[in-house]
Amino acid sequence: MKTIFIVLFTMIGNACYAEDKILEGNTILLIEDNYLMVEFMPSKNLKYAKKELDRISKFGKEHFEGTGYSDATEITQKPIATIESKISKKDVIILLESVGLTRYPKLMYFGFNGFTEVTSSKTIVYGSLESGIFLDVEGSLIKNIWFDSQNWKEINKTKIADGFKILAEKYDLILIDWTNEKIIDLNNDSEIKKYLTNSN
Fold it and tell me: Is residue 65 a part of any domain in this protein?
């Protein structure tokens, strides 16, 4: 399983990434630095998530040097991978569409080499207004589910919160925001709303 490095220094705002590229309304960005940083996972990983967030927080405090950080750490592998839940790609698509979420027809990857259009069907995204629930697909199953937004100000105009809730209800998932060191209870409507309103 791929490990994800948390680089502990002040990042440039996500909006800056898009300044050099005019994105169409039906396009969403996949930003390399944000991959799996807001991650859905089986609720059986809750104890692991709490312990890992505590470790990351302590690491950050130990390596903070006033304006930045002197070192980086990585998120350890979760005990129960999402793909082990045998979540059907077809079923998730039906579920997300049932609450009014639509699939982005175009996905643009942004990394160290700039923008590249993603033509692979291994990642599909549902949402609107530059916010999306990302599905990493392996065969007929979902490998990872994660979230990202380039437009937090308008996120409450979308059906993202409904997507969060129905995924949790159907598949017993929790949401971990590794960057902001938060665990979101997806069975609590007010907690979802608070997270989406106050995160960025």
Answer: no
